[in-house]
Amino acid sequence: MHAPRPLTSRKAGALSGTIRVPGDKSISHRALMFGGLALGETRITGLLEGEDVLATAAAMRAMGATVTRDGDGQWRVTGVGVGGLSEPDAPLDLGNAGTATRLLMGLIAAHPFTAFMTGDASLRSRPMARVTVPLEQMGARFVTRSKGRLPLAVIGTATPTPISYTLPVASAQVKSAVLLAGLNTPGETSVIEPEPTRDHTENMLRHFGATVRVDETPEGRKATLVGQPVLKAADVVVPGDPSSAAFPVVAGCIVPGSDIIVAGVGLNPLRAGVFASLRDMGASIDEVNPRVEGGEPVADLRVRYAPLHGAEIPAHRAPSMIDEYLVLAMAAACASGRTILRGLSELRVKESDRLAAIAEGLTACGAIVTVAGDDCIIDGTGTPPKGGVTIGAKLDHRIAMSYLILGAVTEQPIRIDDAAPVDTSFPGFADLMNSLGLKIAAEA
Ligand SMILES: O=C(O)C1=C[C@@H](OP(=O)(O)O)[C@@H](O)[C@H](O)C1
Ligand SMILES: C=C(OP(=O)(O)O)C(=O)O
Fold first, then answer.
1. pTM exceeds 0.90 for this model
2. Is 175 in the pocket of ligand 1 (CB under 6 A)?
3. pLDDT tens-digit profile of 82-136?
4. Ligand closest to CA 31
5. Angle between the 242-254 and 273-280 helix axes, to the nearest 10 degrees?
6. Strands of 178-258, DSSP E
7. Are 169 and 220 in contact (CB under 8 A)?
8. Contacts of 106 (CB under 8 A, 6+ apart)
9. Is the shortest distance between the CB of 323 and ligand 1 below 6 Å?
10. Centroid of ligand 1 to alpha carbon of 270 (angstroms)
């Protein structure tokens, strides 16, 4: 347990300036894991130094990789070779990090040792059966708490068998867990996904020398990994995280008169759904200086305030903006007319039940919100909700950041009971937002 760190956000004037958000969390986790398996030294530039990623670094060290940080912020990882991880001599504590937990479960599953995993109260409530089911098909065994929850033990296998697995839910974490187990498995391991999810695992495994084929099949997108590759160290440049960029971008969209630039944002099409959705609502977001960095499309986003209107956001877009619904809902609450967010079932199993966090938090702020099955309907009046409430962050960084952004336009301030979880993905959030003109402070 940590001491709660409340923060309050007050109404701000027009935002201006240029900022750069921290590195992409998904890419940072993978760079540490793959560097930790590769032969030679991998240098990582722009690694996200958030608690989730530091948990991955610690876990890889505990299993034999060498992970260090230079004074200039560059990270170096010397790997152990595919299949070369060693048994950690203490439980791995993954804190708040679902991605770290599920991907590492995959890696460990195909090693002949046992590892214990735990995390904070949020992580201990999240479903892990979605990963244990396919990994058991490959030969690993698990001892978990009821409903497949942490703490758990992964009993890895010396003789993993390859599988072809169709994802029952759209999840890059499940896809990646199976593919990472496939690394130390002879033969070909495939994952078929009915809805495409972020493809950083496929792209980065290729960058480290593995063979990964991607085919469009009648059942969906099929990624196939050829097992037991020799992974070779490869430098990684981490782009700015689009999921983090979404917070200042929404701020620029809702605070009248704003004109800001968020520089160096990763715009992988399987991640950029929130920007498309904001544009559907009338937002002015221009991609300036588009380029490719570290194999990912990147641009500077210029955001100019424009009045937003409601829009229907289709369910098939969910995987490309799964972590951005909370902050998009803040924008919808400031828009005029009805916004319908469809297909949100996966929001219920994130760091908290984010569908409930949208409905309860926005309603408390004075907005009109209805949940119908897996859809969320927000009826905007064109005037921001009035605010004047304390929102419980529930160990969920994205709840805290989203409501702090909304507080920039509500008549009354919005207080977050504990903003400490923000450090899991976006260290320095409040100072960076304040450099644009937001008014986020520790004292109410
Ligand atoms: O693979 C990844 O890096 C991630 C996948 C997503 O989770 P799911 O796979 O559970 O949708 C996302 O919510 C998470 O923040 C990062
Ligand atoms: C869902 C998230 O992360 P994770 O699943 O890695 O905890 C997130 O960052 O919003």
1. yes
2. no
3. 999 999 999 999 999 999 999 999 999 999 999 999 999 999 999 999 999 999 9
4. 1
5. 20
6. 188-193, 212-217, 220-226, 236-237
7. no
8. 131, 135, 176, 177, 178, 179, 180, 181
9. yes
10. 11
Please confirm, yes or no, whether 323 is among the known catalytic residues: yes
Q: Is 323 annotated as a binding residue?
A: yes
CB atoms within 10 A of CB 269: 12
Query: Pick the catalytic residue: 323, 396, 418, 423?
Result: 323
Tokens linked to 253: 């969209």
Of all ligands present, the nearest one to the C-alpha of 24 is: 1
CA of 30 to the centre of ligand 1 (A): 12
- Closest atom of ligand 1 to 322 CA is 13
Distances 436 to 136, 240, 285, 319, 421 between C-alpha atoms, Å: 49, 17, 16, 29, 22
Tell me the C-alpha distance between 176 and 322, whole Å. Answer: 16
Which two structure tokens, joined as six digits, stand for 363? 């309603």
Q: Which domains does the chain have, with CATH numbers?
A: 7-23+239-441 (3.65.10.10), 25-237 (3.65.10.10)
Cβ atoms of 275 and 320 within 8 Å: the answer is no
Burial of 368: CB neighbours in 10 Å, binned 0-12, 13-18, 19+: middle
Each residue's pLDDT tens digit, 20-29 = 999 999 999 9
**pLDDT tens readout for residues 367-389:** 999 999 999 999 999 999 999 99
Angle subtended at Cα 7 by Cα 122 and Cα 323, rounded to the nearest 5 degrees: 45
> How does DSSP assign 303-331, residue by residue?
EE----B--EE-GGGGGGGTT-HHHHHHH
* Structure tokens, 431: 């100072």
Q: How many whole angstroms separate alpha carbon 236 and alpha carbon 363?
A: 43
Q: Is 35 annotated as a binding residue?
A: no
